[in-house]
Amino acid sequence: MNAYHQYSSIQRNAPVRAAPAPKISDDVLEEIQEAFTLFDTNKDGYIDYFELKVAMRALGFDLKKDEVLKILSRHGDDGGSKISTEGFVNVMSDMISKRDPLEEYKKAFKLIDENGTGGITVANLRRIARELGENIADDEIQAMIEEFDLDNDGSSKCI
After folding, report:
1. 3-class secondary structure, 46
2. CB 99: neighbour CB atoms within 10 A?
3. How far is CA 41 from the centre of its chain?
């Protein structure tokens, strides 16, 4: 079951505008608001279908066209053609609060374990550090791996 289907089945009969956003951290709320602001290209306080799809993808939700259109029809304004900041924050807060942390860790692990070996190596972390523009010494990266290398094979395994 993807995140939208989980979300939509729970919210189907709930009054959309009356429900407050679920409790999320201030950092996550700020991230949601930043995504909206970034994709509200004309700065009118609304984003359309295309902007919504990209903003949701930026927050880790790659939904299909029909799923995005359902969100717009249920939570959008102007006949479902756009969604306000408030609507976006409420929808994304709810979707993010329903994420399974273990699944999120597994996804992140797969991104780092580019060869699919089931372990994260010094080379994997060196690549990630380089991609992020971080200058981390090899001995520091080695220490990170050793901290979580439970079977002494030179890599950290997924949970």
Report:
1. strand
2. 14
3. 21
- pLDDT digits 0-9 by tens, 112-151: 888 888 888 888 989 988 998 999 999 999 898 888 878 8
Q: Is the dihedral of CA 5, 51, 39, 132 positive or negative?
A: positive
Q: Judge whether 3 and 98 are in contact, CB under 8 Å.
A: yes
> Which of 41, 29, 37, 50 shows the shortest CA–CA distance to 92?
29
Q: Which is it for the CA torsion 76, 77, 80, 83, positive or negative?
A: negative
CA-to-CA distance for 94 and 96, rounded, in angstroms? Answer: 6
Cα separation, 125 vs 141, whole angstroms: 7
Q: Which amino acid is at 156?
A: S
Task: Tell me the pLDDT tens digit for each residue of 1-32.
Answer: 455 444 444 444 333 443 555 678 899 999 99
Q: Is 90 within 8 Å of 114 (Cβ atoms)? A: no
Contacts of residue 121, Cβ cutoff 8 Å, sequence gap at least 6: 145, 154, 155
Q: Is 152 helix (H, G, I), strand (E, B) or coil?
A: coil
The Cα 52–Cα 36 span in angstroms is 8
